[in-house]
């Protein structure tokens, strides 16, 4: 980064440059470090460091001068510091993905560069001294086991792993001494249900293949480009070619030329095009286990939100893309996508107790549900995603059998979702030797401050030890990782990413993770989801509007009475509405938004507030966080006398009606507000923007990337309610004086969506990844095996024990096993 002030010279490490910097402000720094250490052992976050600095250097001008210098740069890039007097160990992050660790002696300001491991030990000293100094504490080091995978070097390359991998693949293929036959072997292995595709054994060496390609290409060139493959299929087979090259002579010729060129000298662009055409993907399994996974009446239930929406939309997009590819390959094959989730016998009116369900708007895709078994029988009820670990191993075994039975073949790609789905996908992919992808939706570790070092405080409630171990297993076993945004991997200038937070961390008393994952691993890829545009379309598309819902929505927003579905009312129908919708989780911060609104007179005078989320009777909820949020909402309504300006609507399950609700809010010239303390991606943001609703969304996480602040919407700071509610009020004040302002924002939001966030872009990218990384894993078999063995040990010795600590409900919650 060359943008700011006295940046380090490239070759300088912090350890090299810090002594000088300290020397220059020795007087102040001695005071400052004395402050750091006076309170004894502790962990300081960035803001604590800054607060101490402020107190140590009282003179503002002095302080600013110091902050403008190198020291300021170092301190402002410091994420946290572990104080173990007389030492202060700093974790400095000069750029996304880059960390340096230094230890400073507060007495004499001596600086020493240290390794991640030593930094972690300092941190552990604060929490568990005995364990920290035990030479044989458990250390996990994936970096040491994975030494052959080439890594990227630039922050700007993070998330673009496919590109990098294709480059490395090209150069490997070009190195004739090495893997010259790797591509040939791969082509020979392609088949559908045992029938060869592309080539057969006749072309079992490169010279034969290359010669045959020339002959066949010439032959195909002489035909009319639309000649169907069947017309010349027999002749091609005599030469050693099988189906899969294309549906017409024109297409076949192109694909053959691509392969010839790659065999002559591979380059990344040609290689990727070739691989995007290879017939190597017909069956896909997608795991999404927790929550209520269904197609109707489930959204908004605990643990049931965007992940379900994402997967159903993803399936539709993938199937469409697969069908098109298969047609162009000239094959007559039925692709199958199976979403595998848990079966919940006590389904609460949803279809979550059905074993098999076709997926709407697809031709060949299904939901397959497999129950949670234990020795006590089948678990009847919903179980929180935090308590799900004891069931997963058995689930993986049962699911594998059912899946093979349903597909009548091994899948070509297994995609996991969230910790539970990812772990099960790892177990299954490993067992069957299939390409594996993972998706996190949210990694919980970064959502709760110090959830790793303070795991003992969290474990009873959240079982993070199981979760973080499972996450590490899956990240490392995956052939590729699909993320929604850059920040998910490597954060932003000031804030580490969700995956980055797994680079080096420690759970004192349990294990020290010296290297958990590297964000420079080329397995990381960004493929952002979209929203179903046949559902979420702009409010201006008059002829498409779902008028049938208008009366219901009018009632939902404006009727005066309280009932099961809504409480509170809106006195002034002429005001614009600010609207939010989410599960009633703490992190979603809906109650925070209500509080900002409640406290801001100006905002209250400008707009009404409508919230969709949860329900009103805490006694009805089984979810801890939901219960406390419900209570908080009620007390805010009372305390700030919100009735008349605020409507609280219970969780909504019909996405068609919801889409019309977004559009109705747009009719009032209102806005969508997403106030989450942290949001991994934020589908509601995309939905609102697709409907043409100007959007204010949290600057913590995905939305910060989706929206360009002030251009296609606005960022708000969930930790600064005053500033946020002011920003919203400013917008509406401006709209009063310049009504065009609202329209401009609405249009700019839509433009942003169409350029970057659609499912078509997504599906194409993901299938290309499946193809390339599938080949990559074959090429790196030995490395893969070493890692698998290491992972297996971690699973068997560590994860299993942790999962056993998670309590399971009593006998009454289980139904006895049916006789086999
Ligand atoms: N949603 C809904 N009803 C509700 C709350 C949420 O239909 O009462 C939908 C919302 O439209 C979106 C999804 O659930 O499609 C929430 O996804 P998001 O990514 O915003 O958050 P998540 O719940 O996955 O954390
Ligand atoms: C889970 C979340 O928490 C959201 O941020 C995402 O938008 C959703 O999953 C879909 O990926």
Automatic annotation (TrEMBL):
The Sucrose synthase first GT-B domain, residue ranges: 270-558
A Pfam family assignment: GT-B_Sucrose_synth
Domain Glycosyl transferase family: 564-749
Stretches assigned to the Sucrose synthase N-terminal domain: 11-124
Annotated keywords: Glycosyltransferase, Membrane, Transferase, Transmembrane, Transmembrane helix
The EC number(s) this enzyme carries: 2.4.1.13
One GO MF term attached to the UniProt entry: sucrose synthase activity
Sucrose synthase EPBD domain mapped to chain residues: 160-247
InterPro entries: Glyco_trans_1, Sucrose_synth_GT-B1, Sucrose_synthase_pln/cyn, SUS_EPBD, SUS_N
Record's catalysed reaction(s): an NDP-alpha-D-glucose + D-fructose = a ribonucleoside 5'-diphosphate + sucrose + H(+)
Superkingdom classification of source: Eukaryota
Record-stated family: Belongs to the glycosyltransferase 1 family. Plant sucrose synthase subfamily.
PANTHER family: PTHR45839, SUCROSE SYNTHASE 6
Family annotation (NCBIfam families): sucr_synth (TIGR02470)
Functional description taken from the UniProt entry: Sucrose-cleaving enzyme that provides UDP-glucose and fructose for various metabolic pathways.
Name of the protein in question: Sucrose synthase
Upper lineage: Eukaryota, Viridiplantae, Streptophyta, Embryophyta, Tracheophyta
